[in-house]
């Protein structure tokens, strides 16, 4: 088994038909590949078995989550160097927040040629005999039924958000905001940047004292608390996460806002008490699904009074030449956001207008999200042991990988995030909005 790294490196280059961009270190201490790069560490032979059984992103992800694979060096640089293998170069990426695409078919075809027989036989010997290793327990097991029913949506939300409020407190910091911050300058802290984002949403909605605000997907309550405290609104926040709701209610009580802020565990399709003066939906619409998006838009339209505004803050992917070829990213779907789907911003705007809204403004915040994600990764790594105790080592590794990969996806313009401001005009077509952006941001 001596020099396992050399054989792994040779197999990788042959299978991929291109130079492998990282140095490799194997479980026997051997190393191979270019110097001066991050090192992809095969801690156990099981890591190679995972990749042989599932070449591509899922095998890599399972190895990472299980701790069979690691990176010695800068994780961002390692993922960036691997981007040519994990991300398509000639077409905008169809994947979700992590940005990875399937490579298994391409690798399998390459390994099937006669010249590869020796390498494959050696790799199987090196990896050890046996059935495929079981997926790490953090992977979502088989799902049944139709996607985006109320029951399945609730289960998907629980998988991602009900992993422990203590974990998220370490990850997000005091703001407890789990969406893109707005960074006014280089010296802004994460907490100040999240405050700036919440305030930007309130100003775009033109919130005024006594108005009713509905926050769809309210998370840990930061938006409704900000709007009630600084703008005097009566706010309702809805979430499908039981843990989020409990945390948010505690914050509301501690702030003395129980009479003005209501937190509910409720599906957006079940809100009975419109009309509202304004609706915010921040980082929630990614969970709706393309088949349900028009229903989502129509539901929110029906919950607004004439002249009421919607602020829809949503991650979007780049368009594809063949939209029907879009597939949800395997790693993201199995480990991070089950059933999550991204759409190009143009599709989002079209669906909102089809539902009856007039779209008045679209603001791209792509670079802001990249910086936000890097701040979250820094928080996670700075509190690694506590974060792992609060949930599990595997969960912490999932979040580390998906947030680091997502930061690169935003930086490379594979995905973006946009705030879409829309209004329900009255029967005569009047929006009640100032003519200029400076007017409605005042």
TrEMBL record:
Name of a matching Pfam family: CMAS
Record SUPFAM superfamilies: S-adenosyl-L-methionine-dependent methyltransferases
Keyword annotations from UniProtKB, A to Z: Lipid metabolism, Methyltransferase, S-adenosyl-L-methionine, Transferase
GO biological process: lipid biosynthetic process; methylation
Keyword Methyltransferase: yes
Keyword Cytoplasm assigned: no
Molecular function (Gene Ontology), one example: methyltransferase activity
Domain Polyketide synthase-like methyltransferase, first and last residues per copy: 167-422
UniProt family annotation: Belongs to the CFA/CMAS family.
Protein name: Cyclopropane-fatty-acyl-phospholipid synthase
Organism of provenance: Actinacidiphila bryophytorum
């Amino acid at each position: 088994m001596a020099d396992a790294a050399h054989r792994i490196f040779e197999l990788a280059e042959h299978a991929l038909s291109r130079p492998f961009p990282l140095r490799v270190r194997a479980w026997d201490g051997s190393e191979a590949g270019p110097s001066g790069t991050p090192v992809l560490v095969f801690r156990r032979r099981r890591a190679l078995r995972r990749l042989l059984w599932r070449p591509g992103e899922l095998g890599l992800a399972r190895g990472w989550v299980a701790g069979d694979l690691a990176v010695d060096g800068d994780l961002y640089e390692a993922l960036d160097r691997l981007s040519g293998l994990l991300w398509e170069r000639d077409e905008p990426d169809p994947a979700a927040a992590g940005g990875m695409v399937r490579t298994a078919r391409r690798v399998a075809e390459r390994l099937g040629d006669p010249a590869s027989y020796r390498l494959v036989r050696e790799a199987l010997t090196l990896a050890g005999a046996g059935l495929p290793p079981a997926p790490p327990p953090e992977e979502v097991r088989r799902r049944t039924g139709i996607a985006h029913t109320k029951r399945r949506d609730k289960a998907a939300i629980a998988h991602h958000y009900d992993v422990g409020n203590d974990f998220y407190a370490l990850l997000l910091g005091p703001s407890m905001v789990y969406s893109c911050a707005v960074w006014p300058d280089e010296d802004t802290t994460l907490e100040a940047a999240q405050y700036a984002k919440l305030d930007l949403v309130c100003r775009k909605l033109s919130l005024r004292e006594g108005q009713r605000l509905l926050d769809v997907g309210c998370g840990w309550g930061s938006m409704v608390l900000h709007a009630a405290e600084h703008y005097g609104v009566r706010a309702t926040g809805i979430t499908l996460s039981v843990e989020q709701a409990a945390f948010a209610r505690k914050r509301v009580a501690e702030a003395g806002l129980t009479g003005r802020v209501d937190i509910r565990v409720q599906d957006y399709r079940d809100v009975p008490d419109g009309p509202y003066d304004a609706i915010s939906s921040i980082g929630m619409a990614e969970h709706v699904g393309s088949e349900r998006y028009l229903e989502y838009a129509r539901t929110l339209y029906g919950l607004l009074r004439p002249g009421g505004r919607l602020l829809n803050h949503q991650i979007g992917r780049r368009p594809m030449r063949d939209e029907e070829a879009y597939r949800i990213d395997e790693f993201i779907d199995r480990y991070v956001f089950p059933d999550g789907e991204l759409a190009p911003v143009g599709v989002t705007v079209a669906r909102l207008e089809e539902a009856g809204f007039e779209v008045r403004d679209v603001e791209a915040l792509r670079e802001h999200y990249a910086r936000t994600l890097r701040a979250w990764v820094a928080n996670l790594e700075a509190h690694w042991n506590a974060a792992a105790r609060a949930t599990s080592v595997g969960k912490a590794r999932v979040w580390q990988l998906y947030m680091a990969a997502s930061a690169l996806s935003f930086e490379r313009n594979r995905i973006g995030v946009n705030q879409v401001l829309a209004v329900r005009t009255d029967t005569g077509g009047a929006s009640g909005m100032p003519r200029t952006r400076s007017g409605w941001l005042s």
